[in-house]
Amino acid sequence: MEVKKQSNPFSTGGGGTNFETEIQTAFVALMLTKTPAPALPLWPIKKIKLQGKYDGYETDDFIAIAKHSKTKCESKLFAQIKHAIAITKNDETFGEVIAAAWADFQNSAIFNPESDSIALITGPLSATDIANVRPLLEWARHSEDSADFLKKVNTPGFGSEAKKTKLEAFREQLQKANEGNEISDDEFWRFMKCFHLLPYDLDVDSGVTFPLLLAMLNELANGDPEALWTKLVSVVRSANQNAGTLSPNLLQTELGIESHNPNQLWFKDIEKLKVHGDYIFEGIRTDIGGITVERNDAISELQSVCEEANFIFIEGERGCGKSSLVRQFINAFDEATPVYCLRAEDLDQPHLDAVFTSIGIEGSLRDLEAGLALMPRRFLVIESLEKLLELRYTTAFTDLLGLLKKQTGWTVIASGRDYAHQQIVSNFLVPHGIHFKSLKLSGFTDEEVDSLCDQLEPMQQFKANTKLKPLLRNPFMADLAFRASSTGSRLTSEDGEQAFRSMVWRDVISKETCRQNGLPLKRKQAFMDISVRRAKNMTYGVSIDGLDSEALMALEDDHLIRRDIDNATASPAHDVLEDWALEKFIDEAYRETSGCSDKFFAAVGSEPAMNRAFRMWLAYKFKFDSSIWEFISNLLVNTTSAGLWKDEAISVLLLGENPYESLVKLKKTLFANEGGTFKTLLLYFTYLSKNA
Fold first, then answer.
1. Most buried residue among 34, 178, 453, 506 by CB atoms closer than 10 A?
2. Which of 365, 70, 105, 336 is nearest to 212 (CA)?
3. What are the pLDDT digits (tens) for 579-589?
4. pTM score
């Protein structure tokens, strides 16, 4: 297909240009405020060429040129603006766009596929195009090569027929643009990597983009951003008609704006938010002994569901690799994609503004949002969402859900344990009308466990252990097994979960091989103290006042805790070990109080996190300590014990591995007190049946 013939600058810049001019003006506003632009690195735009056909560009509505302030490296965005278009193999307008893009893509004199991008900028697209085209472009950018890309598209149950149809539309239009000659898979993949689809609602009265652009311009506009926008439109329209080139200096002169760096507060706030998220991400490991088990299918599925919903809930058992999956997914994005991260504990504030104020953000949420107005994709990761159920406040989270419904372009990826999934969905996501998708993450396969054992010599002892091998399907347990066995520890083929836990406490947490100054005891106590303080305070980092400094340094060196030097706080590096520490704390309280329920529960405390830890401790005792049945019987008939603890015990019984056997053991107890305990059990059973 031939690219469209050159028109004179006035005709290409004048007729029917309202939408085109507004899009061009929006990018000029980004340049003027030094705000990051989509499909470009996080460098300021230095100039924008309008109607660049005369200068050899086929994708010519505008060419935005960004430059790194220190290296002087350049990156260009070639933009074609079409208010209405259909991504089909027979759409002539789409054919013209692809023909122009292909011509530029092949022209090495003006286009570098390693640094430059091509964008089709449109008005609001159909749900079909958004759901099936953008994933293809993201898959291309996240694939190792053309074979990996096409495998994703053609995998049954993953690449849908609708996506295949859209892919064929691109391929057929590219073949037409290539004078009817078929292009190779490698060329096709490389082109798709560089191509972006950017829909905006600037032509919609109720659209969200235009108000955000005005907010972005406010600092330059002396309180009248609409007047400044009107002037910008006029300047852009004139330059468009004359195929002009705009730069910040030229605009400052024409608009009478003083030369300064606007939006400095915004840049500082964004940096604070990024640093906060980076601290969380840096604590997430993605390898075991230097070996990364690639979970490409799960990552690809996550990429897909991110196009189908704006709230993704990744659920799974503790330690199954939810956080690692999210980090691998996020790592694949370039630095220009806005990705921020919070932990559930950060949301323990009476409103959303207070969440960001506690991080050090000085501007408003509106200001933060304004600087990202044209970014098509923005991600907010929430770690350990199950802890939402233990917070004092949930209003900040509901504020966030309300914001998510109003604004476009945001995707929340939340990871949380499977036990909390149904309650969070029922109590928060559904009532607030959130369009969400759930992704259930499982552990390693037997083949992946065998592969790890073969590659990591210390782990070979576990390969034939039928009791422990199922435990190693859990990625974090596999990591613990490697760390413990790397110290020289060995287990027999008959050893099971109890022996494994003892080995981890002895050789990883306490580290009994380093006995100077009583360090093993200090390490154990410091780790337990941090975990208990965190559970009782419901904050991510807790004060390290009163904790042994030598033990803290040693735990940090072994990546068992994370220490925030500036705030003098620390937190466990992984919540599985935190759970184990809480269970050990509860077990010690149980022994010290000789199972006397009133004293025992007073020592444990009634904080939500401690209630959860009690359930985990009790479930473990049911598996390995038969003497616990006497304690449970006494608890259920004890009229002085708080009903809370009885309820917790009954829930563990009903959700255990063999509830029938448990009920038989407690038959006499259940019908004591005129059957009061049995009535409570029936209420729980009814609740669980309704929420199954």
1. 453
2. 365
3. 999 999 999 99
4. 0.86
